[in-house]
Design goal:
7 helices; about 25% helix
Length: about 270
């Protein structure tokens, strides 16, 4: 009868032998080889693997339906106060306005701030069917990227506008796209060819109900609406096709933007 440890005598003992450079390189490459599953569920090695092609999103064509909002007569002007520049407004710069005999009624960048918050937070914008431009009283034309997140606090919005007007663009962190940028005038060069251009004004002779007006006048084509980003006054532009009033009562610019986006969401079945 064999002893309990006798079978160990028949088993060859393993010993570690030093590897040469060629064996060490082959072992290192073997450890790096990983397996994957292809589309059919079969295993393969990483050397022959190719990632599937990523589908590119088709860019918006000129004929695609969308709402284009132009915030006209926006008061976005920088002034040097002390050692730095600030966005001129009637609340923080009362002494500067009084010394320079300016009209505080028209110095309202908060109107543009409210409109941008209303427009960019809308489901219409999140669906990719909204484009916003800003035309200031100093004839500066600004294009707003639909993915821009406008600061909720007005003081931070002022700092953002000062950066934009001095550097001519504001980009996302890292190597992201330009979220805000100053572009060349006139605005008509950036609008789709043949689209209808409508200016909203409380003083317009024609007052319409948007729910009935839009299906007949617009349909599935791109359309431009001009909204005045000012407290008082009427906008007269030579390139618009029609002036309309969307209510028999005076409305704020942010209220007009909210009503327009809401009606287009109903028209294009966006929820």
């Amino acid at each position: 009868q064999l002893l309990p440890w006798a079978h160990l005598l028949a088993t060859p003992l393993s010993c570690t032998m030093p590897l040469d450079d060629g064996q060490r390189k082959a072992a290192k490459q073997k450890r790096r080889r990983v397996t994957h599953l292809d589309e059919g569920g079969n295993a393969g090695d990483a050397a022959s693997y190719r990632a599937p092609a990523v589908k590119k999103v088709r860019p918006t064509q000129a004929a695609d339906k969308r709402l284009i909002i132009v915030l006209e007569h926006a008061c976005l002007e920088t002034v040097k106060i002390g050692k730095g520049y600030q966005l001129l407004n009637s609340t923080d710069h009362a002494n500067f306005i009084r010394k320079n005999n300016l009209d505080p009624i028209n110095l309202r960048p908060d109107i543009t701030h409210q409109c941008l918050l209303m427009l960019l937070d809308s489901p219409l914008n999140k669906a990719g069917l909204l484009q916003v431009y800003i035309h200031t009283t100093k004839n500066v034309l600004i294009e707003v990227n639909p993915h821009t997140r406008i600061p909720r606090v007005f003081s931070r919005f002022c700092g953002l506008m000062v950066q934009l007007l001095h550097e001519l663009s504001v980009s996302a962190k890292g190597k992201g796209p330009k979220l805000l940028k100053v572009i060349k005038n006139p605005i008509t060069d950036h609008l789709p060819v043949g689209c209808k251009k409508i200016c909203t004004s409380y003083k317009a002779e024609k007052c319409v109900r948007l729910r009935q007006y839009l299906p007949k006048a617009i349909g599935e084509e791109p359309v431009v609406f001009v909204v005045g980003a000012l407290a008082h006054g009427k906008i007269e532009l030579p390139w618009v096709d029609e002036d309309i009033a969307i209510s028999q009562y005076a409305m704020s610019a942010a209220g007009v933007c909210a009503k327009l986006t809401d009606q287009f969401e109903d028209l294009w079945s966006i929820h």
